[in-house]
Amino acid sequence: MTAATDMMTGPAAPAIRKTPKGTFDIVFRNASFIAALMVLVLLAGIMLSMIIGGWPAFREFGLGFVTSSVWDTQNDQYGAWPAIVGTLSTALIALVIGVPLSLGIAVYLTQLAPAWFKQPVSTAIELLAAVPSIIYGMWGLFVFVPLFAAYVQIPLSNIVEGLPIVGTVLYSRSPSGLGILTAGFILAFMIVPFIASITRDMLEQIPSVLRESAYGIGATTWEVVRHVLVPQAGVSIIGAIMLGLGRALGETMAVTFVVGNANRLSASIMDPGSTIASRIANEFNEAMGLQMNALIALGCILFFVTFVVLVIARILVSRVKSY
Amino acid sequence: MRKILIIAAASIGLSGAVQAADITGAGATFPFPIYSKWAEAYKKETNIGLNYQSIGSGGGIRQIKAKTVAFGATDAPLKGEDLTKDGLIQFPTVMGGVVPAINIAGVEAGKLKLTGELIAQIYLGDIKKWNDPKIVAINAGLTLPDANINPVYRSDGSGTTFVFTDYLSRVSPDWKTKIGTNTSVQWPVGIGGKGNEGVSASVKQVANSIGYVEYAYAKQNKLAHALVQNADGQFPAPDDKAFQAAAANANWNEAPGFGISLNNQKGANAWPITSATFLLVHAKPEKPEEVQSALKFVDWAYKNGDKLALDLDYVPLPANVKDQVRNAWKGVTDPAGKPIF
Questions:
Q1: In the CATH hierarchy, which fold is given to the domain comprising B97-248?
Q2: Which of B148, B184, B202 sits opposite A73 (nearest CB)?
Q3: Measured between alpha carbons, how far is B37 from B57 in angstroms, rounded to an integer?
Q4: How far does chain B reach from its first CA to its final CA, in angstroms?
Q5: Is some CB atom of chain B closer than 8 A to the CB atom of A68?
Q6: In chain A, what residues touch B57 (CB-CB under 8 Å)?
Q7: A208 close contact with B: CB closer than 8 A
Q8: Domains plus CATH for chain A?
Q9: Which of A187, A167, A189, A234 is nearest to A88 (CA)?
Q10: What number is the ipTM of this complex?
Q11: What is the pLDDT, as a whole number, of residue B286?
């Protein structure tokens, strides 16, 4: 009987051991599902509350909210156009300055740098990524802005004054150091660590046999980078750039410090302007009534702009992949 | 047994009292330093603390309307009809002044004279250069550069901007119709700095600039100030005496809730850009004991807080105004209609 029981429990044993594992698996599966679901619920909640909060402004001004340049708290007239232009132009300037710099850093670190130099630079980049944005803002305002005014804005304004196009785009009537271009520079410094460190990681993952074969058939360093490394890591590099762009679009404190906070549209990138995030940061504390709705509506637009940028990035990535 | 129960009940009552005793308030950032200084001294004497959140005047008004705090604080006074609508009582606590800060090479603090009309035209962009004939005319003997003026303003909504634009609206019809008075306005020219520190950093760094900051801030940061002509045609130096002179000549009962402007008041020594900061409480609070303890705190500050205020470059209210405020507190009643102070 005992033998029979043994024989019966024998084969059944794995099933008994399996049961607790199975329970745990179910719990684990559900827990991670809930965690993932949280993201969707949170996103939907934020979107919903922003649409509800911003609705009075959208209803009041319609499409005019996006296209109007008036921001008059006195008469409760609100338009987002200068802030939208400011957001996109500062982010674009940040990319134009930051992307080549980041790619240069990544290529140098992975392909050319001597070992003793590589480690300090890599650590410095990671440290830079961890600096809080308010520090960039204060450094920008107290250190970068005066230098930028004295050594770039004033000399440049003297050179371009009266010239066609550049005389408008690069001329500053009051060279204060604050403005759209300055904000673009600070944003560039902020996104370089992100883009550079992700790109570096991606380049390091490329099998060295590829690189070595390219060198083996007599390719120069530039040719290796251009024809072997960049195509291999292309998708990831675009992903890294988009991550940086996302940060540049939404960055608030650092930009508020240096952008000059003028709710006006100017043809010159040397002039003060504002971004969506900086305007919200500036006015949220004291906003009442329709002004509050308009600020939330601004947030809604920023959400939408970021979303569109991400979709474009996805499309780009999938097109690069298919080649 | 009974004794124990009484002791237990008493101790529960006591601990309840201690917990309820912390006064809650929220609002303006400008008076935050003096409120926390007063609260510190008050806590030492009475063991009652103050939980004040300096979230800005707009936030303070929202919070008191939502009844989440015992008092709200605002730099820009509410109008009579708003007070009646929400059943609020408003009264001033301390005063301060706003001064124009300048950065012109070779022009020392207190040397440049301006009028309200000139400041309005500078901020409207009508006067563009420091050597404009209108500025030179009242500054004989001062060498002013042939340079563009860089006006600097507060980009965040602030009571300082409210006081400054209120002053400009009073002295310049052009300003009143084109821009008006508010905590933030549509500035036609200039650069915006966030907070007093943003404005002062810009003024310090940008050559040929002019900005406006709280007097306390200008003094502590040693910004060069300009003089402004007052209603009597004089150019007094901005200091606590000049702000008190502005308050002394004002008729505080002109507006409901003491919500008058101290800007451009008569008096040879009155500084023309002066303002009080205000507190708001419900006239019929749901929790009378909370408001009672808030009023007691303000009463204590009126009696004992003047020295602390002067130390921080705020200006205490004149004694007769304090008495009028105490009189107004009779309007704050418990549900039975009995005054709680």
A1: D-Maltodextrin-Binding Protein; domain 2 (3.40.190)
A2: B184
A3: 19
A4: 38
A5: no
A6: 286
A7: no
A8: 30-321 (1.10.3720.10)
A9: A187
A10: 0.72
A11: 87
